[in-house]
User: Fold this.
Amino acid sequence: MKNLLNNLFELSYQKIKNHKQQYHRFLFDIIIKNNSKFSGIYGSRGVGKTTLLLQIANSLGLESDEILYISCDHPLLAGVSLFELAQEYSKYGGKCILIDEVHEAINFEQELKSIYDFLDIKILFSGSSAIKLTNPSFTRRYSMYHLPILSFKEYLELSLNINKPFQSYSFEEITKNHINIANTILKQLGNEKILKHFEQYLKIGAYPFYFENKQNYTQMVLDTINTILYADLGSIYNISGEKITVLRKLLTSICVSNPLELSIEALSQKIGTSKVTLYKYIELLHKAELLRHIVYEGKRFKSLQKPDKLYLANTTLFSSLCMEPKIGTIRESFFASQVSVNSSIYYVDKGDFLVNEKYTIEIGGKNKDFSQIKGIENSFVLADDIEIGFGNKIPLWLMGFLY
Assistant:
């Protein structure tokens, strides 16, 4: 074990030392301030979990031999007990272990529990959304943080290399004060055109690795999708290659359809599987953050024969999986991807969405009127292609400043 630890430490030292990414996503400050003994970060592949771990490693103020970064998908760790490794490292003065891709470790849940119960060492781990890190029985034990896709705010800060970050706002703050908030943001942008950047974000803005390799970005997104399907879902849930093909077909079908155009019956026929199996696939793709499943508001209270709204999880996926996605679906997908991070969201008969069980939202272009939500209290139109709103008409792009 000591020889293994020496090898891992050398890899860790180089990895942490050579890390150059300076931009901090919103979770960085939250995790640093919390200072929990055990914390976990979960999220889809490609959203920046490894980068976040390395940034935290460089900010803890520990000596180089007191902190260890490991990735459980490395061949050196095949078959290695995380508890025994942590126990050995602790004997030599180790104070913190950053465990990346924790779901690749054998029996990782029990191993982490043993470290938590018996060792005095700080652990920060990361893993995929598609695995047991999202189970309530697991998340209750540790401080768990969800790292979502880049918000439009974060994308702007990265693409424009903005030194002073924009402020984030709650959904309620935006509904009450959207004109002043929009003016503040536009002033900070100076000569940069918000709608131009928003159009770009809808196509390529979800994943931070865009800024590392812009030329091959689309292929990298497709590779990320395949890794989630084959490595995360395929291996963890023992799904055969034939069924993975069905999952891809399901994603493509949702990409080219309106959210309510396909019933479960029609969709199951289209991809060639039973309704029971289809519901299972929808749940898995939702956990993996490739698909967003939004239920009808009335289903909270009773069983209704209402279809659910199905979107790809973010707008970048639309650009990668279908040639000409519908603009209305793109707008709704953007809204849902940003708002669902911190708010509850359902769809309703009048309007498109109900947010936090209070706000009725209709989404459309700049000429969208209030006819579909007329007379509904706390109702708003979220309009694309406008810089500044008026009254209860809010620019859609402002939903990208929630985190």
